[in-house]
Amino acid sequence: MRSERFDIVVVGSGPAGSAAAITAARAGRRVAVIDKATFPRDKCCGDGLTAGALRALEGLGLDPANVKSWEPASRAVVDAPGMDLLELALPGDGLFAVTARRYDLDSALVDLARSYGATVFEGQSVTAVRSCLGGSAVEVESTSGVSGASGASGVPGASGLKLTASYVIASDGAWSPVRKLLGLAEPGYLGEWQAGREYIADAGPLSRDLWVFFEADMLPGYAWSFPLPDGTVNVGYGVLRRPRSRSASSPASPGSSGHGMLRGQRIDWADRPRIAAVLGPAARPTGPWKSWPIPARLGGTPLAGLEGRVLFCGDAAGACDPMTGEGIAQALETAALAVGCVLQAGPSRPDAAARRYKRRVRFGMQVDHMLSRVCSEVLTHPHGPAKALSMVPRRPSATGRFARWMFEDYPRAIFLTPQRWRPGTLGRPGAFRP
Ligand SMILES: Cc1cc2nc3c(=O)[nH]c(=O)nc-3n(C[C@H](O)[C@H](O)[C@H](O)COP(=O)(O)OP(=O)(O)OC[C@H]3O[C@@H](n4cnc5c(N)ncnc54)[C@H](O)[C@@H]3O)c2cc1C
User: Fold this and answer.
1) I need a labelling partner for 341 at 20 to 30 A (CA). Which of 177, 215, 236, 396 fits?
2) How many Cβ atoms from other residues are within 10 Å of residue 383's Cβ?
3) Nearest to 228 by CA among 329, 105, 98, 44
4) Using CA atoms, how far apart are residues 404 and 229, in angstroms rounded to an integer?
5) Which of 304, 434, 428, 355 lies closest to 52, judged by CA?
């Protein structure tokens, strides 16, 4: 077993983990990243990057040229029964929406973390997280050989690891093994949303836009078709496990859903005329259907453990948007906040790091999530989406503003929190301008 000391150990190298590693490594800290997968690896996702995610990725130094399936979109279309199509032209100054396979994106981010000096251990599954050295550090143990992985790639001779650090950033996804190991997981918790997707090749010309579909039996929830290069699309749907109105009083039973029928299982798009028309007659699946939970309960689960030595980020913190289920921008943001708090507090004040992190998440993100939760109420009613969307005036200035809000160009609740206004907040150019 290989033993080594770091300043920060990051568990999980999805967008949250890589962002944490990059931020800490750029600040000169010794960082290790441990992931049970070997990269590139697939991740069940819609592959959609909002303006918020794109700005954060640009800030981390990501070069889109390193993400093979990077596909910018210039238009989004929302289709709800009982309503004319809502067409949203995205601003032309920089990027506001991109689709990129997580297979490519996450691997590029891991490479970027490595290039900034982080030590990346792939194929290592974390099995223990405990306090050590009289509470002044955390010890993380892992074993190799998971999912056909052959060991710590790029680090020869490491069949298992015992790493010590002042802090652990737990960015290990919706099921967060670290949360379970610390006894902080809620038994039977299955996420607020269940979502699934597949890749479809030979999709027709209409599929070059970003599409969002509301279907009666998917409420509360929606389906999407997001364009990828070469006529491929990522098509899927997400549904809330239980309608909000019931969620406060009645805990979900495992496997329960507000829909009775749809629980993330594959559906045949040919049976859905509006979606089939966008995919076109030649469309055919090119990969397996995959389904995964989406945790959207920021603030409803502990953000820190082991007296502040472990901070949870991204899906492990339940950070996805309660209205859309998107979580990449939120993963990147929580990672930046957590590492910022760790750096500010220093190695000997974990209580201060945890306190700051909770405060920043509360003031910087929770208010947006509360608004999203309220807005998502419209999804619970059969005519809710059409009614709400028909309130958007069909003028370019209004649809443009709505598109910016939808695509997380600024915090959702910015209008309720004037203290977050900055000059130009509502009209900034997009990310990755030439
Ligand atoms: C079907 C679907 C569609 C979605 N579509 C979108 C979308 O279009 N846009 C969007 O913004 N969000 C979307 N999301 C949400 C988004 O996928 C997540 O919010 C995002 O992946 C969270 O990133 P993360 O880094 O927190 O976790 P993850 O990306 O899940 O990464 C966690 C990492 O932890 C690793 N790990 C797990 N256990 C261990 C262990 N024991 N030891 C070591 N490593 C471990 C995993 O291998 C993984 O690499 C979607 C989700 C689903 C399910």
Assistant:
1) 177
2) 16
3) 98
4) 24
5) 428
Which residue, judged by its Cα, is nearest atom 5 of ligand 1?
Answer: 46
Helix, strand, coil shares of the chain as percentages rounded to 5? 35, 25, 40
Any idea what the CATH number is for the domain that residue 331 is in?
3.50.50.60
Give the pLDDT of residue 383. 84
Neighbours of 297 (CB within 10 A): 18
Q: Whose alpha carbon is nearest atom 35 of ligand 1?
A: 12
Q: What is the pTM of this model?
A: 0.94
Name the pLDDT band for 257 (thresholds 50, 70, 90).
very low
Q: Which atom of ligand 1 is nearest to the CA of 171?
A: 26
Please choose from 18, 239, 326 the residue to mutate so as to test ligand 1's pocket, defined by most ligand atoms within 8 A of CB: 326
Q: How far is the CA of 64 from the centre of ligand 1 (A)?
A: 20
3-state SS assignment for residue 402: helix
Percent of the chain with pLDDT over 70: 92
Name residues whose C-beta falls within 8 Å of residue 278's C-beta, 6 or more positions apart in sequence.
203, 204, 206, 207, 211, 225
Over 70: is that where the pLDDT of 155 sits? no
Q: 35: domain range?
A: 2-61+103-188+296-373
Looking at the 3D structure of the chain, how many domains does it have? 1
In short, whether 236's Cβ falls inside 6 Å of ligand 1 is yes
The protein residue whose alpha carbon is closest to atom 19 in ligand 1 is 327
- Domain contains 255: no
pLDDT digits (tens, 9 = 90+) for 55-91: 999 999 999 999 999 999 999 999 998 889 999 999 9
264 occurs within a structural domain: no
- In terms of Cα–Cα distance, which of 18, 62, 73 is closest to 41? 18
Q: Encode 266-290 in three state secondary structure.
A: CCCHHHCHHHHHHHCCCCEECCCCE
Q: Torsion angle, CA of 407/190/128/123, rounded to 10 degrees?
A: -60
Structure confidence at residue 69 (pLDDT):
98
Residue 150 has pLDDT above 50, yes or no: no
115 by Cβ neighbours in 10 Å (0-12 / 13-18 / 19+) ranks as exposed
